[in-house]
Amino acid sequence: MMKKITLLLMLLTASFGFSQALPFDFEGTLDGWVGDNATVSNGTGSDVLEIIGGAGQAWDNANVTFASAIDLSDDANNTLRFTIQSTTANPGEIHQHGVSFQSDGQPSYEANFQTVGTDVLNVELDFNSGLGSRDRLHIFTDVGNLGAIQATPNVSGTDTSSLSGTYIIDNISLGADPVGADATLSDLQVDAVTISGFDSGTISYTYAVANGVTLVPTVTATTNDAGASVIITPAGGIPGDTTVEVTAANGTTTQTYTVSFGYPIELPFDFNGSIDGWTTGDGAVISNGTGNDVLQIVGAVNAWDNASVTFTTPIDLSDDANNTLRFTIQSTTAAPGEVHQHGVSFQGGGGSLEANFQTVGQDVKNVELDFNAGLGSRERLHIFTDTGDLGGIAASPNENGTDTQGLSGTYIIDNITLGATVLSVDDFELSSFKAYPNPTQDSWVVKSKNQKISSIQVYDILGKQVLSLTPDTSEATIDGSSLKAGLYFAKIKSDNSLKSIKLVKK
């Protein structure tokens, strides 16, 4: 009787579990994986392997010991596959990782691979022929170059062993190449021309059509696998997206490519009914404003809150005679006399080209920044709402010295242009002519002391004539009711003089 009771107790205290064997899908279980200088869990959805790397640990990893050693001798069936994604990396930041099949007392079989930012990476490592069996698999979070490389591809060269991060891994398998699982394209064309920069691994493209074009261009696609099929759904109009859905020969693997059609994003910007491709950064909010005809920026109390735009074609700043940036800006929230410091920055390739400027209270500011000679091209323009002093100063004037990055506000910006210096002005403080009221909301009176005014021509800041008068009197009224708020120049001609005067429309 005692023997039976003892046997029953032994059965009750025995541990039961599943053998650890590939593949691993991590549905509600870690499948026997443990951490070494790293923390592992099933992640937020309880269906992945989440690894939190040990900060600064050279060999932090997750590993599993198989119930039976894994045989890597069959070259046709020893390709390791899984997906991995960093959830903490900065955009464009490279992290180098590694895998290693190991057994005590035996050489390791290893390979490096890299992730970029928070992009999902489909890892596929084809191990070499003639290998033996190993009973453990390690996945290292951040490493230098591993040394016992036995698989291709081997992506290395960036030592990130001092970095760390959080990574989610799923669907680890080992086996033969799947039949008919390729859902990628070998070519993607718009109107019979391959899209610039096409790569089978890049699925989103932006394509600019000429202003005024309304017909959606024709998109055609060629698959890498002849057995794959393609469905192309044209955009409904411009702007719009044409999608190319590729289905692999196996009927289950799919990939969708997108071609986004739009009009060129380029200077000048007038914001009439559109924010003209501008986006936000560091907490700022943008809109077309109350009248649907300006760029309104609601700043956040952050050091680099801004509105920015990426041009379809990079802006060339090399011509010193044609690289003056102009726009109007007004705070709608500042207290009277309150100074706010802002900044502009041309960025993208070759460093930032920057300048500071300031607004006071709710006064309209006509910004005019003459960028230096000998500059190159830049692909983005940022306007920062409230900043400290920017450091890559490449324009004049440069108004700085008041750090307002701890402040915020709402600003309206309009008529952003880049071009030549405006009309030559001999003398803004003219003795022979005067204009009043200046600034005005509707019209100006121009008066001469002792000469008849034969003609008045009004130009905007780009040098475009917007009004013309021939009063033939010593006093004339310029009706500016149809003009937008901003800076203008009046060229005033009399019998023996030609002068220019600055006019401001509120």
UniProtKB/TrEMBL annotation:
Coiled coil ranges: none
InterPro entries in the record: Secre_tail (IPR026444)
Pfam families in alphabetical order: Por_Secre_tail
Alphabetic keyword roster: Signal
UniProt keyword Signal, yes or no: yes
Signal peptide as annotated in the record: 1-21
Residues covered by the Secretion system C-terminal sorting domain: 436-502
Domain of life of the native organism: Bacteria
Protein name, as recorded: T9SS type A sorting domain-containing protein
